[in-house]
What we know:
The protein is of the alpha/beta class and 654 residues long. The chain contains 28 helices and eight strands. The chain is 58% helix and 9% strand.
Amino acid sequence: xxxxxxxxxxxxxxxxxxxxxxxxxxxxxxxxxxxxxxxxxxxxxxxxxxxxxxxxxxxxxxxxxxxxxxxxxxxxxxxxxxxxxxxxxxxxxxxxxxxxxxxxxxxxxxxxxxxxxxxxxxxxxxxxxxxxxxxxxxxxxxxxxxxxxxxxxxxxxxxxxxxxxxxxxxxxxxxxxxxxxxxxxxxxxxxxxxxxxxxxxxxxxxxxxxxxxxxxxxxxxxxxxxxxxxxxxxxxxxxxxxxxxxxxxxxxxxxxxxxxxxxxxxxxxxxxxxxxxxxxxxxxxxxxxxxxxxxxxxxxxxxxxxxxxxxxxxxxxxxxxxxxxxxxxxxxxxxxxxxxxxxxxxxxxxxxxxxxxxxxxxxxxxxxxxxxxxxxxxxxxxxxxxxxxxxxxxxxxxxxxxxxxxxxxxxxxxxxxxxxxxxxxxxxxxxxxxxxxxxxxxxxxxxxxxxxxxxxxxxxxxxxxxxxxxxxxxxxxxxxxxxxxxxxxxxxxxxxxxxxxxxxxxxxxxxxxxxxxxxxxxxxxxxxxxxxxxxxxxxxxxxxxxxxxxxxxxxxxxxxxxxxxxxxxxxxxxxxxxxxxxxxxxxxxxxxxxxxxxxxxxxxxxxxxxxxxxxxxxxxxxxxxxxxxxxxxxxxxxxxxxxxxxxxxxxxxx
Length: 654
């Protein structure tokens, strides 16, 4: 897809686009009514002030946090149509403010950690509706069964299932709105909760009021995922469809509130001992079986959006050097549709672990939200720098950012109350992810600092002579090296050492390939530099941070183009093969570093590098990561020396 076509797609508003948006983007935030009001009331007796205050807080959270911050402001921070915290980081990276890597890594890790708890809580909340009919049923095996099915179908892509998503979510949001409206008609008085005074009274007057914010926050947890999935549907489609989604959500929350106020003084369990969830209580008895089925399907769709989002996030993290290289598959020809097996099965294990640990959705509510609020604070920090880049007036930036920091830090403090009740689970997971990302990033930086770069000019003469030196057996017709040197006139010293000293490698043509990952998502460009005619060439690939690095295929395309233009002759130079126009062989040489025993390191470098090499054992090999054919690849090991020891003074005695 060309950049102009991509831009056209993202700036276009269409009915089809709006429907797809409903199916893909709003699953997470759209299934929040399943558990938000239930968690606010808890096991306490229903109190009108708490109900009105809770609904008022939900309404203003959806307005200030989701509508204004995410739908209006954050969606403007798109990176060529793509969203998400890493896409935002790629934009603000240009400011050269080095510490911005911190909020990017924390935010990305927190979002991934919360992705492990979203599928279990959504599916469990929906499935628990069955208890209305089968009070003693153990829902854990059903929830695990649905999750296993959901993660197993990922490898086939979501193209077919995607067509089913949009109409299903249309039914879901329609159901939310109608159910809520029916209850509001019976108690119109509940609409006074639109007045923010009720939210204020709950927070200030009610003894537990401030900590209720931790449960109110659950109504906006899908906002970050909404931003991450922007690339699939486009900004305009999200903004227009959000009007319908927000109306449906608000109607449902107010409807649940109207129902609860009618039952003041009772507990949810005393209203219905089998299923004390206000979401199901507002349904007519005859409709409940249908409601449970629709809710379960909506929960599965919500989970799907988060799984796809996790794949995208890890893919970006790899390209930005935050994550080890892992296998990526492309199950369909759809743009942006990827499948990462290792992440898929790790997420499934995490989800099953969450279900087995917490068992009930009410227990999961206690753990949910703590990590995502960290992600939102990190997005706010990065957004500040984005607005500075865009030269937005400080008179607008300061009050806006202060407002959101106050709101989000309040949510964070309220959510900290959840830490001992299960919040530690997502924080532990996020911490592990932060550790891996930080180690990988720092190790790459250390490695780059200790890579010696030399000028190609110094080696032109010897390479040209080596190419025609018949006393050295020919290694390959075409010898290809991957290089990290950014400048065209430079190359790593180890490459020259490999060609000239580590068994001299005579070839007819030497190729140096450099892959440059761009700050924009989709770009596929290349540039060819002729260093010595018919002897040395350098190819620079400029790839977007969401593009696949299929170097084998790309290199073939470049060669084909160069041959068609008469820029290079790739026919074999062996006389018998040349006569018959046989194409010469291509040999790739990749270097693999290992930590030299001669290295002298500080303790923190030792920790970083040893952990890096340990994690590297589980990641893809270099040839797999570059998409090379292993039959034509030679791996050479090179020692990596950090802080070489002082010269040893020896005395000769004989």
